[in-house]
Design brief:
Blueprint (H helix, E strand, L loop, with lengths): L1 H16 L6 H12 L33 E4 L29 E8 L2 E7 L5 E4 L4 E2 L4 E6 L3 E9 L5 E9 L7
Antiparallel strand pairs: 1-8, 2-3, 3-4, 5-6, 6-7, 7-8
Length: 176
């Protein structure tokens, strides 16, 4: 019995919606809106040409990288000539520049101190004294809790090579 009553009440409600008498006020409103004058849209302002800008700092250090700490190693003019060993097999971390490497910690194992270095691709590698890292033939000289000391062999700009010290700080440590 409840099913029949609910069906009948639903039928009555739907039939009430279908009568056109309730929609006359809606139709009158729509006719009134359509009869209003159409508004004018302001034209777009004229396009102003901006002169092109040539970005010339593309080869410089990214402002989001910490500045490198460079210490020049002075050598005697009559001292030994420095040259990188081009016949040496390159180590994995030599494919990255020092700016793409970050020290993320240290590890001591069997009395040997290792530095943990993260590369630009997110991989973490172990380095120890004597290993090479960076694209400038950087050899690890010392590993401390907050930094890794390197000596790099770089071109002096006049056909020779010079050594320079470089420091890779632990990520998050401020330069002093």
């Amino acid at each position: 019995m409840t099913r029949i009553l609910s069906f009948l009440s639903l039928s009555v409600a739907l039939s009430a919606c279908s009568t056109g008498s309730d929609l006359q006020d809606l139709q009158a409103f729509m006719d009134e809106v359509d009869s209003r004058p159409q508004g004018a849209i302001k034209p777009l302002p004229p396009f102003q040409r901006v002169p092109p800008f040539a970005y010339e700092a593309g080869a410089m250090r990214s402002p989001f990288e910490p500045p490198a700490v460079l210490k020049r190693v002075e050598r005697n003019p009559g001292g030994p000539k420095v040259t990188p060993d081009f016949n040496r097999v390159k180590e994995f971390l030599e494919q990255y520049t020092i700016g793409q490497l970050a020290m993320v910690g240290t590890l001591a194992q069997s009395g040997v101190q290792f530095g943990l270095v993260e590369d630009n691709d997110g991989g973490v590698h172990r380095v120890q004294v004597g290993d090479y890292m960076g694209s400038d033939h950087g050899r690890v000289l010392d590993i401390e809790d907050t930094n890794i000391e390197l000596i790099e062999i770089v071109s002096d700009g006049i056909g020779g090579w010079v050594e320079r010290e470089r420091t890779v700080l632990l990520a998050g440590v401020e330069r002093g």
